[in-house]
Write a structure and sequence with these properties.
It contains eight helices and ten strands. It has 262 residues and is an alpha+beta fold.
Length: 262
């Protein structure tokens, strides 16, 4: 290799090193911003800022041993989630609230959120329908047998919170056709109809993208993430009586529970 080419190679290596170092710093700052956003989100959701205003960026930087740029980036992440906003002359303020939904007790939505306001239900569709094979299998009914199918939009204090699709065996579900589903949890009605308490439920929780229909009903942006809770509820004698697919607005609900290691 000609000697005249060597300085050019060294210069190229130096530039590559500089670019790599810049990318590393940018990645580390993004990591720290995300980690700080997680801590601040927890503070927001537990009511740490009672007056609705976050401390100044410099105060947050001192409290969390972060740079001002990292704090700004963390607040930008929370702003993108719709939790906070920046008001001129005021600072960063809390603009949204999430409601806690426990996962360690079997309760209806109105029971779960009774301390936070009134839950109302808009019954969108209700009636007998042939059970799809997965539904029939899980409810222990004959393949193709009719089950009661109910779709409800559930609101908390008037705000759309969840879209629930429920399947119930028809021998139980028929009694629900004349029930007050707009103001009463299905769980309470099931216990009244069967004369038995509910026993346990199997749940699966995952994040899914809202399709056009559910986004419109929930008044959420199309493609926004929603929390999908699939729940199969049994009576205390073990009979499965309620299979639900519940889409929660992820920006209005948090899931929490108490786990024990045996």
């Amino acid at each position: 290799m000609p000697p005249t080419d060597r300085p050019r190679d060294h210069a190229g290596q130096g530039a590559a090193t500089t670019v790599a170092a810049h990318r590393t710093r940018r990645r580390l700052r993004a990591d720290r911003a995300r980690q700080l956003a997680d801590l601040l989100r927890r503070q927001l959701l537990t009511g740490a800022y009672q007056d609705g205003t976050l401390p100044h960026e410099s105060t947050l930087a001192t409290d969390y041993r972060a740079t001002r740029n990292t704090v700004r980036q963390a607040l930008d992440l929370l702003r993108a989630e719709g939790l906070v906003d920046r008001l001129p002359g005021v600072g960063t303020v809390v603009v949204a609230r999430k409601y806690p939904h426990g996962l360690d007790r079997l309760m209806g939505l109105a029971e779960t959120l009774r301390e936070h306001g009134r839950v109302t239900n808009e019954v969108r569709t209700m009636g007998p329908s042939p059970a799809p094979a997965p539904v029939a299998e899980r409810l222990h009914v004959a393949a193709g047998a009719d089950v009661l199918c109910i779709e409800r939009l559930r609101r908390l204090n008037g705000l759309p919170l969840s879209l629930d699709l429920t399947y119930i065996p028809l021998d139980i579900g028929t009694a629900l056709l004349d029930a007050d589903l707009e103001n009463t949890d299905v769980f309470r009605l099931l216990e009244t109809i069967t004369g038995r308490p509910l026993g346990h439920a199997e749940i699966t929780l995952e994040a899914v993208n809202a399709d056009a229909h559910s986004a419109a009903v929930l008044e959420a942006p199309r493609g926004a993430s929603v929390l999908m809770l699939e729940r199969l509820t049994h009576l205390d004698d073990g009979r499965p009586v309620d299979l639900e697919f519940i889409r929660f607005r992820g920006d209005r609900i948090t899931m929490s529970g108490l786990l024990h290691r045996s």
